[in-house]
Amino acid sequence: MSHNVCMVSDFFYPNVGGVETHIYQLSQCLIERGHKVRSQNRIRNGYFISCSLPRLRSKIVIVTHAYGDRIGIRYLSNFLKVYYLPVTTFYNQNTLPTVVTTLPLFRDILVRERITIFHSHSAFSVLGQEGILHARTLGIRALFTDHSLFGFADGSSIITNKFLELSLADVHHVICVSHTSKENTVLRAALSPGNVSVIPNAIDTTQFIPDPLARNPKRVTIIVMSRLVYRKGMDLLARIIPAICSSYTNVDFIIGGDGPKRVELEEMREQEQLFNRVQFLGAVSHDDVRNVLVKGDIFLNTSLTEAFCIAIVEAASCGTRVGGVPEVLPSDMILMAEPRVQALTDALHDAIRMIKEGRHLQPNESHERVEKMYQWKDVAARTEKVYDLVAGQPAYTLQERLQRYRNGRPIAGVFYGLVVIVEVFFLWLLELLRPEKDIDVVPSPKPQTKSKKYFHHCI
C-alpha cells in the first residue's frame, strides 16, 4: 500500500542526535522501498531533455523549523524533501508554542503534498505536538514515535506528561523504540498497550566499521558522544572523570557533543589540570562520528533516562565496549550501572580491567553481531506495517475527538477540547480566505520505465 507520509519534529539536520538520525534513515529506507519516482527534466543548450536517470521525488516529506539560514524547502539524498519553517525557537532547538498560529503553514504543506499519514517524533518536540493537532483537524491520520523516557515526580515531567496525554488521545497509533520506552509511555500518556508498537532504532553498519589501528595501544581511551545536558548525566560525568584519572595514569577521555553543561565540564578539567587527558570536540557531524568512535576502547553513557540510544549501537559496531539500556545489547557486550557516581565509576573500573586483560569482544566480532541485530531496512518494513494499520482505521468525527479528550480528564480534557474548537473555526476562516482548491498540489509522480533519452527543441 502506498502512503504519502509527513514526518515532523523540531529535531532534524543540521542538528545532530538520535531523533535526527532516526527520521533521516527511516525516510531514506522508505524511499528505497518504493515510495518514489519521477523522471528528471531540464533544459540544456536550448533543448528540453527528458532523461531516464530517475529524479527520485519521495512521497516522504519532513517538516522542521528553520536552522539559521536554512529556511524554506531543501532536498537531501534521494530527493528527500524537507520544509524548514520560519517559526521562532526558544529553548533547546524547540519551537515557541503558539498552538494554532502554525496551522496555515501545516495546512499548505499537508494539502500540497497530499499527505495521508502524519508521523510526529519526540515528546520534546513542540512542533510535532502542534502538528498532530493540525493534522487531526484536517482529517489526516496521525501516529507518534516516542524516543525518550520521562519521570513522574518532578514538576517539568508532570506538565510534559499531561500535555503528551492530551496530544496522544487523538492519534491512531504510537511507536516506541524499546520495551522500556513502551512501558514508560503507556503509563505517562494513559494509553492502551495494544495501541503501542515497539520498533527499535538501528544504524547503518556500513558506516561504522572498526579500525583497531586508530586506537592508541599504550592508552585506554573512553569516548563520550552526547548532548551535554542534565538529562544525559553530565553532572555525573563531571565527578567521574577526576575519579578515574586519579586512579589510572594511562586513561584519557574524548568528549563529543555540545550543550549548556559543557561549561561545567571545562571548569572541571581546568580545576583538575586534565588538559592533556580530557579532550572536547564540540558538536560532531554525523559523518565524523565513526572516526571518533574507532579511537575508543570504552564508550561511556551516563544518561539519567534513555529509551534506546543509537550512539551505543554505533559504538558497539565500531568494536567499542559500551554501557547503556539493558535490552539494546546482550550482556557480554554491555556493562550496566545505576546512575550514581560510585556505581558508574566501579563499572568503568571493571571495563578498564577487561580491556587490559583482553577479556572483551574483538572489534570485528562485535561489528558482525551488531550488523545482524539492527538494520534500518527492517525498521522501515515494520514501520510500513504500522502505516498500513493506521490507514485502515476509521476517521474520527469532531464529536468523537472531543469525547476522547474528555475521557478521564474532566478539567484538562475540556480545556483542550476548547482549543480544538478554536482550531476548527480558524480552519474554517482559512478556507474562506484561501480555499483548498487554490493551493497548488504537487503532481503525482509517474514511474520511469524506459532508458532512452528524448530531445525536443524548445519553441
Summarize the structure.
With 459 residues, this protein is of the alpha/beta class. It has helices spanning 18-32, 103-112, 126-137, 155-168, 179-189, 234-247, 262-272, 286-293, 310-317, 341-357, 363-373, 376-391, 398-406, 412-433; strands at 5-8, 38-44, 47-55, 60-65, 72-76, 80-85, 89-91, 94-95, 117-121, 141-146, 173-176, 196-198, 220-225, 251-256, 278-282, 298-299, 321-322, 454-457.
Question: How many helices does DSSP assign?
Answer: 14
Which stretches of 5+ consecutive residues score pLDDT under 50? Answer: 35-58, 319-324, 448-459
Largest sheet: 8 strands, mixed
CA radius of gyration is: 24 Å
> Share of helix among residues?
25-40%
Spatial order of the strands in the main sheet?
Answer: 5-6-4-1-9-10-11-12
Strand tally, please? 18
Shape: elongated
Task: Report how far the terminal alpha carbons are from each other.
Answer: 41 Å
Mean pLDDT: 82
Structural class: alpha/beta
The fraction of residues in strands falls at 15-25%
Tell me what you see in this structure:
The protein has 459 residues and is an alpha/beta fold. Helix content is 39%, strand content 19%. It contains 14 helices and 18 strands. It has helices spanning 18-32, 103-112, 126-137, 155-168, 179-189, 234-247, 262-272, 286-293, 310-317, 341-357, 363-373, 376-391, 398-406, 412-433; strands at 5-8, 38-44, 47-55, 60-65, 72-76, 80-85, 89-91, 94-95, 117-121, 141-146, 173-176, 196-198, 220-225, 251-256, 278-282, 298-299, 321-322, 454-457. It has an eight-stranded mixed beta sheet with strand order 5-6-4-1-9-10-11-12, with helices on both faces. Strands 15-14-13-16-17 form a five-stranded parallel beta sheet, sandwiched between helices. A three-stranded antiparallel beta sheet has the order 2-3-18, with no helix packed on it. Strand 7 (89-91) and strand 8 (94-95) form a beta hairpin. Helix 6 (234-247) runs parallel beside helix 7 (262-272). It is elongated. It starts with a strand and ends with a strand. Residues 35-58, 319-324 and 448-459 have low confidence and may be disordered.
